[in-house]
Amino acid sequence: MTSAAELAARATEEILAGLETAERGVVVDSPPGAGKSTLVVAAAYRLAGAGEPVMVVAQTNEQVDDLTSRLAGARPQLRIGRLAASDYVPSPRIARHPNVTVAVSAADLAGCPVVTGTAHKWALVRDAFWPWAIVDEAYQMRSDLLLRVAGRFGRALFVGDPGQLDPFSAVQTERWTGLTWDPMQSAVAVLLRHNPDIGVRRLSVSWRLPEPAAELVSEAFYPFTGFRSGSRAEQRRMAFTAASFGKNACDLTLEMAARTGWALHELPARHTVRTDEGAVTACAALAARLLQRGPVIYSERAVAGAPVTADRVAVGTAHRDQAQAIRARLRADGLAGVTVDTANSLQGREFDVVIVLHPLSGRRDATAFHLEAGRLCVLTSRHRHACIVVARAGIPGLLDAHPSAEPVHLNVPVKFPDGWEANQAVMARLQPWKVRAP
Amino acid sequence: MSTLIALARALAVERGAAQPCCAVRHVHISDRPLVFVPLALAGEAGAPLAAMVGDRPQAARLLTVPEPRDRDQRFAFAAELAAIVLDYIGRYLSREETVNVREPRVRFADAPQLLLPNPAGLAFTRLLGRSTRFRRTEGPYAVPENVPLLGRWLTFFAERAEVPPSSLTLPVTQALALHWATGQSPLEDLNLGALLGWIDPPPGLTGAQAAARAEDPVRCPPAGPATDPTFDNEVLELRLLAVRTARATGDGRAMRRAKDALAQALATQLTPAWTLMWRAVELLRTLPPGAHVSSRWDADKDAFTWHAGQIRDGGPPQPRRDSAVSAARRLAGLEKTQAEYAVQRAFDDPLMMAEYRMTGEAFAGTVTAAEPDRVDATGRRRVLRPRVIVETDDVVLAVPGTVLTSPARPSQQARVVSVTSAGNRTAVLLELKGGMGRALTPEPGSVPETGEAVCYATFGDGFQRLPDFPAPEDTPWTHGGPPAPYVPADDDAREAWS
């Protein structure tokens, strides 16, 4: 059997070689943590090396900075332009690279073989043309934004994770449902409907997710395009330096998570408001207890072990008010360093341990928003070591009571997996790792 | 549903009457709105059966279709409706006003307003517009001259209803439900009779009782476009049969009698809804309008002027589908106006602002200290930067550096300098910028004084530019390339499934 590393290297090489023969472009689907950024960096070198200037499009300034510093760090002789708004202040990781030029106007970056910027910034560039574009996180980009950017490039490499949250709009309308250029769809969906001959390639090894996580996430959210973990189960380990005191539910949950990589911290069934006091307290208490017990992780990156610090722990929620409530609780405990955010904001980020407040916890109904497969997928695929799901009991029953009843529209391609089914699959798989909390 | 609305609904149940959830009216109500209550034939998509239409309560016009499955009669109905609607619109096409002093432009001084009972009535209007606007007035299956014109106006009204802040076309149940919370579900609020029962119960009845009465289709026939199935089976079927028989036998007198009987039966179904519609208009008029209502109505007047110009200049009817560029542009416009609408409502209405205070996006409190003449001399130029301290019991999520706006002084920016909490009370130190005149001393009233009750929100109603999109002829390959130009054809009116 070929090793994961060989498999991944071969896939990357094939994609890069395919770029030269692509007529219009290539789409690369990547599961969580499958080395998407590495591919973007490699592709940018390959294209720039062949003498073709490249524009790199990412969705947020954070993502652009991340890509820019990786590009600049790996090839100090390559000149990189960073296109930014006038109020942009280069972060330290950009400022330390002498080969990065920051400019407001694309004309000031004429000599740079690689120019990076957010999609919104690129949409403001006029009268310039790049033979190649690399669009990162293309599934998070809305197609109307691609419409504004697409005139700037000839061919493009689109990279993204199809299992994550779709872009959304606060405007509720079915006016464009079924149109091939529906502006509310993702950039890739619209691109592929107009250019069905564009090849879709896949990365199939997740370097982030540990083996048990890769299995669950792959099965529940990528039923037809499975992937595997790049690490073996014995390579990833979490241990605590402080012993537990007595047998409270938090400690049991943490130990379950350390041992298996998963834990379902189940609170008693109850219908609650969104900012459920019990669930908020449990999330904050788990994060606090985790850090108190001095967790140490062992992985292929840190064979001798490394401590888990607050900035490597995240709490993910569905709604902003839930995140605010948990954040306030953690701040009161002096743990402001723990990241607490919604699924939308956690997209594309990576942590050692993630605590998830289940979107359906304590609800009376299962709406399309709460059932969305992408939301649960983002929340359960951010971690390198362990993921703890906090939920009120009764979610499988709630799902059974609310079968998926979304209308089916003409000319709308069916999207897999169905949110209802993915939620059922995750709950079913989590059962062996359940810890009942009082 | 927000927590406050949930509370208002619970109170409505407890008190037996709908609870106001707005302090002001957020929609414009015209002096002479055109009320349109359509009925459709069950089982035949988009087939008009009857309509009651008019711009005054006592001037109801009843239109009926004696044989709704007959396409010719359908277009005869459309022609009759067109005469009324176009006459109504025509009254707004004469008076003009000049706006914008710097770049003067002329628009109509007022705009028509179409009131429908419910969202389903709006959907029916859209369908009627879609099925008539592409019809040819000559050649085979020609329709009367004014039918395609009616189709274009109805389409305009229906499309305008998609724009959140627009009042040009209002489903009345929606307008009422925006201002009152009832003790029933949002689905039940779609029943105009039940909704008005909660808001304005007849003497001696509670809201719940009045709503329950309104659910009896005999006492309160549904406000369309779907009719009561029992009426369909027991009354309508026989009357339609009588018309059909009279037509088959060619008996003129029997035909007249049958048509009269049909019209009478349909009037019994439409008149209660008609009365309810005008009762709803009266109720909405009792609320004082919000501060931004007139500026939003101005946008409606602009849209009306633009569309009237399109028709006058012989432009093509609205396309059946948006092109890639127009869809994206429209979405951007909708997103912008929806965001503005939410901010304007919060700024106009303390009850709306309360929702944001609940979530910590806004706070209200009292100014406990003010330094109105504070000048910042650290920069290149000395600038006026007064500081005030606001104490509040609300949740404050703003952190130092956040820029806040106060509804009382929307042109002024307030930057949070520090936030200090003691128990439930939070003191926020704010530094003010702008909206105070040009001198180094603020104009009177431009800086909040000690003791003043103020409210600050993390959002402002500043102007947002619409993004640029490529011209339709520059549609990129990712979106299917440039669309083919529109050429009128006989098949325009044909649907993909017809």
Lateral arrangement of strands in the main beta sheet of chain A = 4-3-5-2-6-7-1-8
Distance between the termini of chain B: 40 Å
Percent strand of chain A equals 15-25%
- Percent of residues in helices of chain B comes to 25-40%
Low-confidence runs of at least 5 consecutive residues of chain A: none
How would you portray this structure in words?
The complex is a heterodimer of chains A (438) and B (498). By secondary structure, chain A is of the alpha/beta class. Chain A has helices spanning 4-21, 36-49, 61-74, 92-95, 119-122, 143-149, 187-194, 211-221, 249-260, 277-292, 320-332, 343-346, 368-371, 373-379, 395-401, 419-430; strands spanning 25-29, 54-58, 80-83, 100-103, 114-118, 130-135, 153-160, 199-202, 205-206, 228-229, 237-240, 262-267, 295-298, 306-307, 313-317, 339-342, 351-357, 383-392, 434-436. The longest helix of chain A is centred in the N-terminal third of the chain and has 18 residues, at 4-21. Helix content of chain B is 40%, strand content 18%. Chain B has helices at residues 3-15, 71-90, 119-132, 146-160, 172-179, 192-199, 207-214, 229-249, 252-286, 293-312, 324-348, 350-359, and strands at 19-20, 34-40, 48-54, 61-64, 96-99, 105-108, 114-116, 169-171, 180-181, 362-371, 375-376, 383-384, 387-392, 403-406, 409-422, 425-433, 453-457. The two termini of chain B are 40 Å apart. The mean pLDDT of chain B is 92. The interface between A and B is medium-sized, with 30 and 32 residues.
For the structure shown, list the relevant keywords.
heterodimer, A: 438 residues, alpha/beta, 6-stranded parallel beta sheet, 16 helices, 35% helix, B: 498 residues, alpha+beta, 6-stranded antiparallel beta sheet, 5-stranded mixed beta sheet, 40% helix
